[in-house]
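agent> call fold_tool(seq_1)
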Amino acid sequence: MQTAICHVDPARRDPASPLPHNISLANPLNKEKSYKKYLESQCSDQWRKHLELTFSNPPGRVRAYVHWYLHNKHKRSMYKPAPYFTHQCCPYQLELLRIRTEHTMHIIHSHLHYAFRHARADYKDRVCLHCPAAGITVLGDEIHIICHCPATKLVLAQFIDKFQGLARLLDLPPFASFTPDEVTRLVPGNVPPPVLTKELNGWITEATPICGEFAHALRMHVTSLHPFAVDLSSDDDAALSSGSNDDFSPILLPPGFQPASAPPHGNMLVPFHPAGYQMLGQHILFKRPTYG
């Protein structure tokens, strides 16, 4: 612990070194809390400086991620979780997490190298799959898919009224005044710079459901354009609990198998519990991506 603190706060290497001025003036009962906040700001600054080093790299996924993540670097604490994480039981919250973590790589085409179906292409060569038919070759990144691609930007058009109402509700500038760069940050749940700290709870409550619904609509639309290019993982069942109403294909059992009439009792899953012997001879099936 001492080593970690000294890394964040080098002055602590000398026990006789005085504490920062604002901590020294704090009430004795509040000194620990004040020092904790000081360490949080130090961690945030160090993490930001580490990320900013990637701006000198060639264009790529890491630099693009940092570009979106640090758009409000002077107001945001890197120590705190992203606002869309803190909404309780928001519909389609898993959809929003998926598009932000590049899980559904078929939606944003610059993510497709994660499928490992072909040799890894350079970032600049990961073109939009919808535009070559129109004689256009352009990078299939977030800003293109959300705002510019003729085949996918209509999803944003369907949500214009909702985002305009959100801007009015939170006293933001008109949604139509946002640049494509700003729109691409806002619709996945990033807090725009005009939102004050005191209004952050309002943003979390009002914006997260709309952004999640947009992410779900975008995924469903792109899936309809390329129904055989989808590579979903085995956590699709979890999407149902987050409010998704997708119709997934049923699991086809191998010959000779049939589902259990009832799920196993809790004691059956406890290691070394005698009730577990009742599960001998049974199998657990795993739904593999694209194969069912």
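agent> call fold_tool(seq_2)
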Amino acid sequence: MVVWVTPAAFAQTPDRFDVASIKPRTGERTAGGASTPDRFVRTDITLRELIRFAFNVQDFQIEGGSGWIASSRFEVNAKAPSAPYGPDRMRALVRRLLEDRFALRTRIEPREMATYDLVVARDEGRLGEKLRRSSLDCEAIIASGAAAAEDLARCDLRFRPKMTDIGGRPGIYSMTLMLQGVRLSRFATLLQNEVERIIVDRTGLNGTFDLELEFAPQGKRPVGLPGPPSPPSDGPPLGTALQEQLGLMLESTRGPVSVVVIERAELPSPD
């Protein structure tokens, strides 16, 4: 069964940010944001991307809203009342910010959708050479709210692909996803937007892992990277890369998925 977020999960009214600045953004798109345990910073972000963070969903789990929600861009800099703020509390503060400044109103609906199970590919359970047990536990480090800067840098679990030119040909590239100290349930979440389905970890593998996965891009690209290349990348398809490099595979299934339906949103007034 797919775990999905219920409306009750957002029922409590959180604190507000002490100070919050939202300004229009123009020019070339950039990626960035030096967030800390008590500050939320995004230098170039759309309301749709803010909703993804605030509700902890993928792009394919958002419906409704006018075109500007995905096109108008903003700089956001907000200070929380006190530190440290873990990911869940920070998401709650951002949800309240969107309600206050964008007049955002949403509802959460369950939908029956195609999903994937992440499973071990080989009958004997042998893992690929690029999937290794780790002594680092990034989930615990991040949740502590008091980790050293060096550990936090190692535990940046966002999807940070690396462009790799193949044979010196412009526009031909593969993506390399490198993670340390990650649970496979988090790894499955990171792949969801690439395949535009919810992925549930059914590997039965506990603990944390270091991994490296190189594959041909197929989904929407993160900010600052071009779309899928033409002609196609020389990198292996994601399914092939998972089996050959990690010893894992995706099995098609169906299950309930939470969808955030946008009922109302307005452009924020200038600071």
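agent> summarizing second result for user.
Residues 1-11 have pLDDT under 50 and may be disordered. The longest strand covers residues 248-264.
agent> awaiting next instruction.
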